[in-house]
Amino acid sequence: MWLVKRNPTLNLEAPRYISRLFNEFWSHPLMDIDEDSTVWSPRIDVRESKDAYEVLADLPGIDKKDVHISLHDNVLTLKGERKFEEKKEDENRYYYERSYGQFSRSFRLPEKVNDKDVQAEYKDGVLKVKLVKSEEAKPREIEIR
Questions:
Q1: More confident position, 48 or 40
Q2: Between the CA of residue 112 and those of 55, 81, 103, 134, what are the distances in Å?
């Protein structure tokens, strides 16, 4: 699989872009990836209950110390890295399909959350982040008089 860096500022209709795309495609070796590039993205589920949002991320093979979670201006960001396994002297590798490297996923939350009450749990390769809704964002029953 070949990776081509996406540049949203380029005009896709310009012939110059197509020419540059093919030139870059053939000039970069398969594993020549910038240190700060995002190589893969984990699969994510986002669920909502009346009291909270829950974000679940599949992160198999990643140590929890290599995952970082931040919440800023109602945007939840998950960052981390799956490190490449070192090749042993007595083994031959014939096929690579798993992705390695850094990832970053960000989600704008539709309502305010209580940023003091965010819980994260990592178990069996699944990261679960629970974001409790603020009191004003929770649905409430209105009494009719």
A1: 48
A2: 15, 29, 25, 6
> For position 15, what pLDDT does the model report?
63
Residue 84 makes CB contacts below 8 A (sequence gap 6+) with 100, 101
Residue 127 has pLDDT above 90, yes or no: yes
Closest of 48, 71, 66, 73 to residue 127, by C-alpha: 66
Q: How far is CA 132 from CA 1, 79, 116, in A?
A: 40, 21, 9
pLDDT band at 129 (very low <50, low <70, confident <90, very high): very high
Is residue 55 scored above 60 in pLDDT? Answer: yes
What is the Cα–Cα distance from 90 to 140, expressed in whole angstroms?
A: 64
Indicate if the pLDDT at residue 79 is higher than 70. yes
DSSP of 38-106 = ------EEEEE-SSEEEEEEE-TT--GGGEEEEEETTEEEEEEEEPPPPPPTT-------S--EEEEEE
Domains and CATH numbers, the chain: 34-84+99-137 (2.60.40.790)
